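Example 3.
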Amino acid sequence: MFNPQLDNAGRLRHLLSIDGLPRALILHILDTAAGFAGLVDPRREVKKLPLLRGRTVFNLFFENSTRTRTTFEIAAARLSADVINLNVSVSSTNKGESLLDTIDNLSAMHADIFVVRHAQSGAPYLIAKHLDRTPGSNIHVVNAGDGRHAHPTQGLLDAYTIRHYKKDFTQIRVAIVGDVLHSRVARSAIHALTTLGVPEVRVIGPRTLLPTGLEQMGVSVFTDMKKGLAGVDVVMMLRLQNERMNGALLPSAGEYFKSYGLTAEKLALAAPDAIVMHPGPMNRGVEIESSVADGSQSVILPQVTFGIAVRMAVMSILAGS
Amino acid sequence: MTRAAPDGEALYATLRDAIAAHVANHRSLRLVGIHSGGAWIAARLQRDLGLEGDAGLLDISFYRDDFNRIGLHGQVKPTEIDFTVAGAEILLVDDVLYTGRTLRGALNVLFDFGRPARVDLAVLIDRQTPDGDARELPIAARWAGARLVLDRASEFVLSEKDGRFDVAIAASIRTGA
């Protein structure tokens, strides 16, 4: 398969998907992210690092996402980059400009990194391929979520969060619960965790929301949430993606909550020190009970904080290659 | 040019004794070691000179001037400075002063924490090259265990074992200025 993510020396050239990244490189990203944790030290007068000084990061969001765009923006700013936010969904493309024409124009403005969010799976690949064919271009692409395909920085921050709380990937069981069919988050997390050596990754959801071929990704499939949660160390909840449901995949949100919503009662089936994760934004009362989302086992807000360090790591590694 | 490796313990003793009188008159002095060799030396000086608390630790990985060329390497140690840098008298400690570029990075790290009243430099080895052109920046050490000449193809490598310092000479891994 075409994998433009790595250069000839095996260094990260673009971050498009976790699929195809070597374990050592994923660990390097997580280690680097850990190094950025000290930046919030209150004793520092300057809460910035000079790694991307003089570089320009363009956030190209062809699909809206306030949270992801904001964390990329903060990450780039803490590395001293200049950040340009383009909400492309409401500008050029509406005037009929093609995706690659938009990219060529932005390249002409001397960008160093494009952070791309697009509703179409594969759009960041298309852009990376196009840039690599453009003579003299040294622009790096970071996929910030493409269609149902991948959301690699989310997968990396999920891995970072799990490592932070559980230390050793090879001694844990992880359950991913919910709308896996529409979830690029799930796909990226599965690739990250299996690559990092998590011995048991379980996927839990109704048949209608589980894609076929999951077993080939090295996970075990459960349709009964109570069985699936038994003894797990990490519970990763997914958002019920209402806006992506085209057909009648589910009877109702209420029915879904009964079977697949995370309640305190269901969480009690997991290991006593299990952590609860969610990529956000949460639908309280649909996939997760409020008391669990705000409970002592929830690490949902730390995930957001770790996400900044992970995105700093990705951008600084790209800029240094 | 080949030369025998110097005695790490003797260098350390010389450095410690050279600093001792100054430290006796400046009890508020803060030692900050540069990761990794400088951190070992600073921690030992802190104990041997009877200074209170722990020496600070500083990692310059995120401030290297060759970052664009070589990128990030290895695991970055968090910088640990548990005192207020603004107004402090600081003694930076490193194993070898050579081109001066590491110290430039270290000064930038310090100044991102605040504006110190004074920064001095102590090194185990103040290294020169046979042509006398080692330094690439106007940086000098106030104290050194020794001033030694070593050819450009080699480098001093400090190691610590059971609390004792050992200095070896190895082929340089530097990829050029």
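Chain B is about 25% helix and 30% strand. Chain B has one domain: 8-171.
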